[in-house]
Amino acid sequence: LKSIDQYICNQMYVSWRRTLTESLHTSYFQGRVYYTLNVLREDIDNPDQRISQDAERLCKQMSTMASRLIISPFTLAYYTYQCFQSTGWIGPVSIFGYFVIGTIANKILMGPIVSTLFEQEKLEGDF
Questions:
Q1: pLDDT class for 1, splitting at 50, 70, 90?
Q2: How far apart are CA 36 and CA 28, in angstroms?
Q3: Which of 18, 65, 73, 91 has the most beta carbons within 10 angstroms of its beta carbon?
Q4: Radius of gyration of the chain (CA)
């Protein structure tokens, strides 16, 4: 089952990346966009490299997320039911409460890291 999921994920990734890259490059080379971005705008560096990297990352994340969005509701419902059967209503409520608290703590702790990751992406694009 996991192999089928990975195969479908990879097929979606390749298909979405091909389509998105072709569309973005078509728009990039139409008119004077290429010339404008590379010659007239000095504040935008390496636009073609950034397009390729961003398209690759977006498609990889979207294919992974699509798989998780399809499988997760069934997994969540199954384990909630099993937990309810074992512990009654207190088990699922405790687990969901733990997830909410963990999510809030994660948001607070990860906030400062976002700016660092943005700077890293910018430096990688410059490289």
A1: low
A2: 10
A3: 91
A4: 21
pLDDT digits 0-9 by tens, 5-58 = 888 889 999 999 999 989 988 888 888 787 777 776 777 777 778 888 889 999
* Helix, coil or strand: residue 125: helix
Helix (H) or strand (E) holding 4: helix 2-29
DSSP states of 27-94: HHHSTTHHHIIIII-SSS--HHHHHHHHHHHHHHHHHHHHHHHHHHHHHHHHHHHHHHHHH-THHHHH
Question: Under a CB-based contact definition with an 8 Å cutoff, are residues 46 and 122 in contact?
Answer: no
Q: Is the pLDDT of residue 91 over 80?
A: yes
- What letter would DSSP give residue 1? -
d(Cα 42, Cα 59) in Å, to the nearest integer? Answer: 28
